[in-house]
Amino acid sequence: MSDFVNLAPSELTPEQSVILLRAGYRSALGEWSVTNCLQPCWVMWYNPQGCCCCISGGKRYPMTGKNLLLMPPHTLYSGEKSGEPAHYFLWFQAIAPFDLPQRKVISLDSAPFETRIKAAFQPGKYQIHHLYTLAYELLLSIPEEFFSVNNSPGKNQVINQAIKFINRREGCVSNAEIAAELHLSPTRFSHLFKAEMEISPQRYCHQVRMYKAIQMLQEGHDIKTTAENCGYADRYHFSKEFKRYHNTTPGKWLRIHLKNVKN
Questions:
Q1: Which helix or strand (DSSP H or E) is residue 63 part of?
Q2: Which of 1, 33, 107, 151 has its CA 20 to 30 A from that of 55?
Q3: Mean pLDDT per 10-residue interval, the chain, length 263 residues
Q4: Distance from C-alpha of 84 to C-alpha of 64, rounded to nearest angstrom
Q5: Which secondary-structure segment (H or E) carries 256?
Q6: Which helix (H) or strand (E) holds 109?
Q7: Which one-letter DSSP state was computed for residue 207?
Q8: On the CB side of 195, how many CA atoms lie within 13 Å of its CA?
């Protein structure tokens, strides 16, 4: 066996596969109790004290303090908690070969990641590098078979195309438009989507718009501008939908978020 590997120039400078979106630590987890939620990105949760649980696909995934949870994009889940544990979180997007994996919660032993997590959430010169390394280490700990759904024929491919189209349109799209993109009837498309995703296409579009709303509010946009950019006719309608999804109003969410940032 050779002592080194010859790499082509293109292999030495690969396309960036991971894009960080959010990362942080909260001393008290106040927003864990959610129902039928999903995110269009990867999400890592780590609660060292435990006392939280994620429910997805009819299965419970408790966090005991000795494990962390990794949620693939577009995976429906609900959350329960029995206290106010400290909470580490990392949101990131990933392209091929890590895009559109199986939609199933992954529970990992936290011990191999504890040193990296400590470095990644400690402010310093190399923090961003530790965060990116943590994201890659999490993805590389998953068996390759977990991503084989991308190569399988059938309805998964159709739904994956629908998800990509919805996300390109940032959730502002009708069932008829999505069905036309996929060359299906609206009824057939809606049936396939709900069977695969466990929620309706418009419910998913709503989740995508709410995800964008959170991103915009965090970036400093006001509620009115956020509502308009997320496809809502007015602030009242946006606030009503935001509360249905996040169990709080945009204004209250902003106050809590700003308080957490200061802390």
A1: strand 59-63
A2: 151
A3: 52 69 73 72 88 86 92 86 79 82 90 93 89 94 79 66 90 94 94 88 89 84 91 88 81 71 46
A4: 14
A5: helix 250-262
A6: strand 106-109
A7: H
A8: 10
